[in-house]
Every structure is written in structure tokens, then in C-alpha cells.
Amino acid sequence: MRIVLFHLMPYADLDLEAARRNGTVWVKLPNRHFDPAKGHQLYNRYLDELEYGETLGFDVIAVNEHHQTAYGLMPSPIVTASALARRTSRVRIAILGSALPLRSHPLTVAEEHAMIDVISGGRLISGFVRGIGAEYHTFGVNPTFSHDRFHEAHDLIVRAWTEEGPFPFEGRHYNVQYVNLWPRPLQKPHPPIWIPSQGSKETIDWAADPKRRYTYLQTFSPAKVVERYLRMYRDTAKGFGYEPNDSQLGWAVPVYVGKDDESARREAKEHFEVFRNVFVKMPLEMLLPPGYTSRDSMKNVMKAKALMFGDVTLEQAIDLGLFVCGSPKTVLSSFEKYWQDMRFGNLLVLCQFGTLPADLTRRNMELFAGEVMPALKKL
Amino acid sequence: MEFRESFVELSGCGVRLRRGGQGPALLFLHGASGMPAILPCLHRLAERFDVVVPEHPGYGRSGEPQWLENIHDLAYFYLDFMESLGLRDVLLVGNSMGGWIALEIAVRDTSRIKAMVLVSPAGVKAPGVHPADTFLMSAEEQVRALVYDQKIAEARLAEPVTPEALDLALKNRHTTARLAWEPRFHDPHLPKWLHRIQVPVTIVWGEEDRILPVGIAPYLQKLLRNSRLEIFPKCGHLPHAEMPERFVEIVCG
């Protein structure tokens, strides 16, 4: 198994009372709540944590993209990935991912990813996402064209990476007379492409297609939901007539390892619950603008509203498999059991979440890397 | 007055049509919430007019054609529609999104239009006036913001939401987003061409409109050379539904 250290870079100095009063940290939480001086400390602390991931032996360190939110301070994962490319030398760097439909021009994504791939000596893993629903509110991009723009932007980027330029690209959303990428990516035919998703049949059908066989990552979902979607990917691949490799499947999950179960839960509780019940929370209209998902998916979410929009305690989250927490032994045996059921070839661990401070984050990473990761890598 | 229901097939789209009354043609273009039931004001207008109430492509029980990508598509569709039904000397009435469609139709061609009544129409962005963001409102917030008289809102909210009504609401919201998400509920190029509308236009606006504030009304009136403005006090975004008597009087007058 390949182990990925994943970071969201939340604004951990957030005034939590203000955030709770506002109802969500997305879209409309006034940015006077962001203090750039504290931001300076946080960015550098978080980048140090990711760089430490290389020292600790993680296979991949990963960043992602979110806009106008305290949930994550990476409106451009390009900036963080670039910084990491220069400060690390062996570890792979994953952008999970660039929100293609939010960009006015996909060639900028092709160019920036190619630059990082070349600078890092071919260590980039490219991820593509549509951006979450809230970001269609912040950017004004029409969510009913989200899938179309995603697919077309993807096609343009992959062609720009792989075909000899200059060539013209004619689409419904993007038209370019001269596609002629400088630099071309170092990896051949192009950097691996991973597709993070909160679970969508449409995305799985597209990612599992034999032309693509992209690695599908299920993010922050109850273990049963992760299992259902990873199985859907396998079944879809079989429907296409091939047996997927475990490396095509991944699970992203927050993790906390402590000395023993009791102290792990005690140390993580407040910080995890802030993550789940303050940073993640947003109203339905923000989460699912029209057209972002199919109307059937939207109705399913509306039915599950109590579970999705209500508060979750740390204990409930552990039971649901939304969070893996405990002694090294407990965490290892949990993942071994989940792996038996799901056979994911990539595990993305979020070792910092919510307000988890620097000292606990580091110890969490060290315990995970020292006492859990070696056995998992052998799976 | 009774309305007959039928489906007409046009440009590969089945359009649900309700039509009632006799007299000069009145084409009513509904707003973003669709038109599940014929409103009392339309029943009354059918005593004087041949009232034609289509559900727009993408709304209600009409089809969802592939070609529907922007508001201009609907303008051309309704030019075809009037031609196909042989409507002439039409009194074109539109509320909100429907008012926007009416404006987009009329800048292109008024040859079948005799006069227009625009009821708190979308379509034009007035400087310094900020419409509500309906896409971030819950269903309940929307119902409350639509009307001034909260008793009407309470009655609407007390009605049970059937699975079918939910399906239609999601469908209407989807099409509204497709047409009006960005730029939000307006076409920045429309003001350049509004001088082409020379038929008489009556603009009706609720003084307490919490969706499209009444501040848009005088701006729009200046852009339409042959227009007059009627502002309804103590009235929200749906003057035709909230104050039907006065609305019918103005349409007939």
C-alpha cells in the first residue's frame, strides 16, 4: 500500500464562536476573521509538517484546493506544491486536485502542473476535481455546466501534455488556436491522474473507463460509503472488461494516533469535532447548487440530511469509520480490517485536522509513521 | 374561466400549454418557480383575453431540450412559438424570469407583439441595486421573501410537499441556474438594445420586493422609451399573485 500524507491547511486560529454564529466557514464568513500574521505562522508550520512527511518516509505528500474558506488556506495548491517541490527531493507530491471548471483557462493548469513535474524531476501526481458546490457560489461559475467544463478541460490538458504542438483545440467551452505547451511534463506519457470524489456514479464511470483507469479517491466518508463506492469502481471496471489494480483505489481519512486509545481520543476530541462540526459544515443550498450533482443524488442527500448536516461526536465518527483514532495497535488493526474489506492501494491520512496544534500533529505523524505505516506498506 | 391543457411539440421539445378564454391573445411567461396551477389573476384575464400559458422548456412538465443553454435560446424559442401558434397582436406579460424572456424576445422582434406588461422583471442590472441571492436561500426563505403578506407565505408553507412537487421544484431550479447563474439574473448586453422595443410597455413592481428590489424599476423605465411604471405599495415580488384585482385592472386598462 502507498501511504499519502494529506494536508488541508485549515485556518486553525479561527474565532470558533464567530464561525458557529455564521453557520458555516464557507462563502460568506467575513475575511476580517483572517489575520495575515497568524496566517504566516500557519502556512510555514503546515509546509514544515508536509516536508517532515518526506523525512518520516511517507510515499506521497498531498495538497488540495479550496476557495474563500477557513476550511483550507490553499486557494492555489500550485503555490504550496511548488514550495514543496524545492524543499523535498524524493517524496512524490500530489495536487488533489486542481478544480478544473473553476479555471477560466485549463491551459494554465496544464502549464503549472507541467512546471512542477519538471522542477521536481517527475515527482508530481496530478489530481483533477470539479471544486465543491460552495465554490460555484464564490466563483460564479455556472454549476449546471460543471461536468461539461470538467471533461472538456481534462481533454485539453491531457492532449496538451501528450500531443506534439502546436495544434488547435475546438470545444464548447474552450477554444485555442495554438496548443503548444512549454514546458512539457517530464513523466511519460504524463503525470499520474488521481480523481478525488465525495462519491458519484458519474465520476466513477468516467474515471474507471479503460481509456483512463484513473485512481479514484473516496474522501471523508463513513467507511460503509467508502466501501460501496470502491466496490462500484471495481464493478464498473469489470463491466468495461478489465480487472482494476488496487492502486486505482484510495481512501482519504483523518487519523489520530496516541499512546493508548483513551489518551488518543481525549487529545483528538475537541480538534476533530471542530473539524467535523465547524469547518466542514455548510447548508444544503451551498453544498449542492443546481446541476452540481444529478437531481437523484440531490434527493438522496436531502433524505440523509440529519446525518450529513447534524453534529457528529468523535465517538460516533470512530464508529462510522469517518475517523480512525487510537493506539498504534488499534489504528493498525482498524486499517488492516478496512483493507481486507476494500483493498484500497492508496491510503491518504490527514494527520492535522481542525484546530489540532503543532505538537500533537507532529507526534501523531511520528507515531503513525513509526508504528503503523511500516506494516501497512507491506499490505 | 376554464383552461384547456395540451402539449405542443416544437423544436424537439414538448411544451405543456394551458389556454383559456377568448379575445385578443395574451401570452403569459411565468417566473423561476414555474406555474404549477393557473393563478386567479389569469382566470380573470381569461374573461377578456385568449390567455396562453406555456411552461417554458426546462420547467414544470415541459421537456428539457439539449439546446437550452442560455436565455437567448428561450427568446428565439418563443418567437418560433408565437409563429407556430399563429399568435398576432399579442399582449406579452412576464413575471421575473418571464419578464426577462419577454425583453429578450422584444429586442429581437416585436412584429407579433402589440404591448407588454413586465411584472418585476429580471434581465437588467441596475447600478447600485443588489438583488437577493435566491440560490443560497432555503425553500422556506424563498417562499417568505417572495411575498409581502406573510400570511400567504404561511399558507404556502403549510401545504405538504409531494414527491412530485419536489421533483418539479428541483427541475425548475436547475433550469433557472442554467439560464441565470452567471451573470446573475441579467444579460449585460440587453440594455444596449432596449431602445428597439417601441411597443407600449407597462412595468409593474412591488414596493417591498425582496428578490429584485424596486430600485431597478426607474432604471428600466428610462431604458424603455414607451413605458410607464406602476408601483404597488405593500407588495412583494409577485404583484399579480399578491394583488390580483389591481393587476388585472392595469392589464385590461
Query: What is the β-strand count of chain A?
Result: 11
Q: Name the CATH architecture of chain A.
A: Alpha-Beta Barrel
- Report strand order across the widest sheet of chain B: 1-2-4-3-5-6-7-8
Low-pLDDT parts of chain B are none
Low-confidence stretches of chain A: none
Beta-strand content of chain B? 15-25%
What is the CATH C level class of chain B, in words? Answer: Alpha Beta
Run of helices and strands of chain B? EEEHEHEHEHHHEHEHH
Helix content of chain A: 40-55%
- For the CA atoms, what is the radius of gyration of chain A? 20 Å
Please list the strands of the largest sheet of chain A in the order they lie side by side: 1-2-3-4-7-8-9-11
SS element count, helices of chain A:
15
* Largest pleated sheet of chain B: 8 strands, mixed
Q: Could you tell me the CATH topology label of chain A.
A: TIM Barrel
Distance between the termini of chain B: 20 Å
> Would you identify the CATH H-level superfamily of chain B?
Alpha/Beta hydrolase fold, catalytic domain
User: Any idea what the CATH superfamily of chain A is called?
Assistant: Luciferase-like domain
Evaluate the radius of gyration of chain B: 17 Å
CATH topology description of chain B: Rossmann fold
* Assembly status: heterodimer
